[in-house]
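User: quick one
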Amino acid sequence: MAVTTAPEVKVDATEANEHGYRTFRIGEFEFRRNEYFVYITWPTGRHVMSADAFLKALQRDVAWDFFYGIVNFDGVIGTVNHYGTVDLFAGRYNDSYRKAELDHLENFQTPLIRETFKQMLDDWTNDGFDPFASPTETGSAFGPKRGNNRKAITRHRVAAKRMVSVPGDEQIRTDTSGFKVNRHFKDVGQDEPDVRPEPGFENEIASFNLFAYLSRSDVTWNPSVVAACKNSLACPTTEEYILPIVHGNDRVEWFVQLSDEIWWNVEDRDSGVARCNLVMKPGDVASMPADIRHQGYAPKRSMLLVWENADPRLPALLSSGKLPPTAVDF
Amino acid sequence: MTEYATRFGSLEGYEKGSLEIIDDDPKRYTYSNVFEVAKTSRPWEKVAVAKNMEYVLEAVRAEGTSPWRICSHDEFAITMDGDIEFRFIKPKDASVVPEKTEGSVRLEKEPAGQRMGTVRARNGHMTLLPAGAAYQMRAERPSVLLIQGISGADTVFKWAEICQTVR
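Assistant: Done. Structure below.
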């Protein structure tokens, strides 16, 4: 059954199966789920993932509009953002699949894969399961289809144009606006800075409590812009349990650990060969080169500043070798 | 019910993590610590701890009263530790910072102009340093700032001193 989502985009999906879930096709890929698992097939192979792990990865890919570079759902399936088109791949960044010639990649116009993924996420996310939440703050992804959780999967994504709290821009989080202090951050100070603008400068003199703001985040592993200086984007996020994707960089990105601790496993972006592991504690700063992929593990909810350069020229400059994969040479 | 304790760093209390190299050059990860950098910096020295093309994050040891500075673009300062007061003035002479100058510029003295206001920021507070506004900072005790901006004439680069360079 073809479902029309926009005049120019037709998502290819079947009627619901015996478990209540629709099966989706895009190009030569097929995605179907049952009570526990998601099955992905392509002309040269097949793959299975746990439904909760798949939905957590799918949620990030949809919310981030395919993010910067590669979003690996696991060691086999993922997407590459070309900012207008998107590669959907199986085994392309997995040495064994490449050697066995079982890998497969197709390129799609972004609106088609965006709508396909959005509908898949909507159909496969059950009532009570929040793919953005930590495991102890959400219900189960499993079982036959039961309702939906559209409120959770279509959250507003914060993207400050200048800085959170500036009049007309994204605003701070409060109990009243529906953002309670998270159970792991009850001890984080909620005092706001003393801001005293002279008349006429209310839009210029601004400050807010970033740590309090983060303590009230209701999602995990979801960098979002709180301050922007041209293409320099400060994207802090709160992290708990495991980053549900393995992020393959198409540019250098930086991490500043603001609170608590995160362990990072870092691998070669293309082959998956281990490069290093990194334990980051408060105040630690590290860059992630443009030729690696990384996955984080946070034993307690922590605050991480992800710092991005959104310059659209970077991927081409890096892939052509005109820029080195590291930010600094010393 | 478990009581969770959130750990932040400070100038006097930080514990660095660790970088374990398996098959790579540690310098590629530019691994440092904001508090460690501030610990050995001169007051108000702007030391780059992160760089991405022209953009930087600078660690600043805030102690005493800073020189007046101005920038043609917005900057953002996170108070990582301590208590810092910011004073802002809109200079009468806008040419003190040419429009295309990147990074903040040090002024020799307080510029003539209109007072814009003040901010007093403590741990975790993020403060806008607006484009075209001169600012001065004051910290009665040693404090730490992390400033998001663009590399300028006063940005200090000393990667080999602040980053892990061996396995």
